[in-house]
Design goal:
The complex is a heterodimer of chains A (about 230) and B (about 230). Chain A has about 230 residues and is an alpha/beta fold. Chain A folds into two domains: about 120 residues, Rossmann fold, CATH 3.40.50; about 60 residues, no CATH class. Chain A contains seven helices and eleven strands. Chain A has a six-stranded mixed sheet, sandwiched between helices. In chain A, strand 5 and strand 6 form a beta hairpin. The longest helix of chain A has 17 residues. Chain B is mainly alpha-helical. Chain B starts with 5 loop residues before the first helix and ends with a helix. Helices cover about 80% and strands about 0% of the residues of chain B. Chain B has one domain: MetI-like fold. At the A-B interface, strand 7 and helix 2 of A face helix 6 and helix 7 of B.
Chain lengths: ~230, ~230
């Protein structure tokens, strides 16, 4: 089981982000209201935002340690990231988007793996299309597939459903549950929807104003949380 | 039909060669400078920005004269290049290409810079999480997304280099077969009592080349834009 160990500080505008927790997931849910620092935290885990101080490790491997001046750059972390808005490359077909991680890593084609992920996400009919012509739900499925093709050690999902309407949300959720059950990739799943997190995460880290206010099983999310941000 | 004399053909070939070489050398430099101006803050940025635009606002004869005193055989840069590498710019077609490149540079940089500024940098972040180093992010994401601007800048640069006159004639003079471009040849013919017909023929050629370049760039820019908008 992969252990994600986070102890990071970063001032972001008015917010003084100081987050410390450890989780062996496999699915860690980051819960908190908008502005509580969730996205900044995930960006620090991905290596896109540099923490001011602290330490970050995935199992034995230290990805960031201010004291020892370790900062593994984002492109060497092999951490998959599914962004809220997908961020597919508009100038590449879906197939090239999916293939991008393998191409950058200089690995040979793995047709079986490619077919497996394409089948799991039902994106075979989209392969020759370009992102501009995809629906929001299709785009998110491709974004998930693109991150998976990297064979990530950890998968970050930052509000992957937030940009979708309710019908599309319920279209994607089954794929995410399949992803959790069929792959063994540990995930950090960010959401401000308690109901969404209760379905997918088994460890909940609750953020309030840049601090961890609670950590535990899905039961730490109360009925009031579901109402508060739903 | 248009019957061109060998001298006219020479001027046309020379013009095309000078414009192509000027554009080809300026393009990678222009992309680099545009990227610096779009993405980086550094001391002297405003100065660099101003220096690049300067040839656009200075009288071309001033730029030509500055080139002559710095890149001429006895100029500080010119004598260094000659003694170290044996490179000569003054009164050579290479000098014409240099003058054209400098005159056209602002027109090359501007559209490229604008398209760099318009790129959603979050896409580069996405590429980083997928394992792309700085170099690969630039070549596989930034450059292709800036392609419409690069095409527009390249055409403007080529067209300007093709038609440049003032700085070129000041720096490298008007030597048939070496530095006499279409523009310089037209100028010469208009100064010759019976040169009207020849001048007119070259005017037509200049218009045809400029139109062809314009249409080609329009075609490629449209195709690039279509690719970017996901069709």
């Amino acid at each position: 089981m992969t252990v994600l160990s986070v102890d990071l500080c970063k001032p972001v505008g008015e917010l003084d982000l100081r987050v410390t927790f450890e989780s062996d997931g496999p699915v860690t849910g980051l819960f908190g209201p908008s502005g509580s620092g969730k996205t900044t935290l995930v960006n620090m885990i991905a290596g896109l935002v540099r923490p001011q101080s602290g330490r970050l490790a995935l199992d034995e491997q230290v990805l960031f340690d201010a004291a020892r001046q370790i900062d593994v750059p984002a492109h060497r972390r092999r951490i998959g990231y599914v962004f809220q808005e997908g961020r597919l490359f508009p100038h590449m077909t879906v197939r090239k988007n999916l293939d991008y991680g393998r191409w950058m890593a200089g690995l040979p084609h793995d047709h079986a793996e490619f077919a497996r992920i394409v089948a799991m996400l039902d994106i075979a009919p989209l392969l020759s299309r370009r992102p501009g012509k995809l629906s929001g739900g299709e785009r998110q499925r491709v974004a998930i597939g693109r991150a998976l093709m990297l064979r990530p050690r950890l998968l970050l999902l930052d509000e992957p459903l937030a940009s979708l309407d309710p019908a599309r949300k319920s279209e994607i959720m089954p794929y995410l549950l399949r992803l959790r059950d069929e792959t063994r990739i540990p995930m950090v799943y960010v959401s401000h929807y308690a109901r969404e997190l209760k379905r997918i995460a088994n460890v909940i880290v609750r953020l309030d104003a840049g601090r961890v206010s609670a950590i535990g099983g899905p039961d730490i999310l109360s009925k009031t949380d579901e109402v508060a941000f739903a | 039909m248009l019957e061109l004399t060998p001298e006219e053909w020479t001027a046309i070939r020379l013009s095309l060669r000078i414009a192509l070489v000027a554009t080809a050398v300026a393009l990678p430099l222009g992309i680099g400078v545009a990227w610096l101006l779009a993405r980086k803050t550094f001391p002297g940025k405003a100065l660099l920005d101003g220096l690049i635009v300067l040839p656009l606002v200075l009288p071309p004869v001033v730029t030509g004269y500055l080139l002559l005193i710095s890149f001429g055989r006895r100029g500080p840069v010119g004598s260094f290049l000659y003694e170290t590498f044996g490179i000569v710019f003054s009164f050579r077609w290479t000098g014409a290409a240099l003058a054209c490149g400098i005159m056209a540079f602002p027109l090359l940089v501007r559209p490229i810079r604008i398209s760099f500024e318009a790129i959603d940098r979050k896409l580069e972040d996405a590429a980083a999480t997928l394992g792309a180093s700085t170099f690969w992010r630039f070549t596989t994401v930034t450059l292709p997304l800036a392609m419409p601007g690069i095409i527009a800048g390249t055409l403007l640069c080529f067209a300007k280099a093709l038609g440049e006159f003032g700085a070129t004639i000041t720096f490298v003079s008007n030597i048939p077969g070496e530095t006499q471009t279409i523009s310089a040849a037209i100028y010469t013919y208009t100064q010759t009592p019976s040169g009207d017909a020849a001048a007119l023929r070259l005017v037509i050629v200049a218009i045809v080349i400029a139109m062809a370049a314009l249409l080609a760039s329009e075609f490629f820019a449209r195709r690039a834009a279509r690719r970017l908008h996901g069709e």
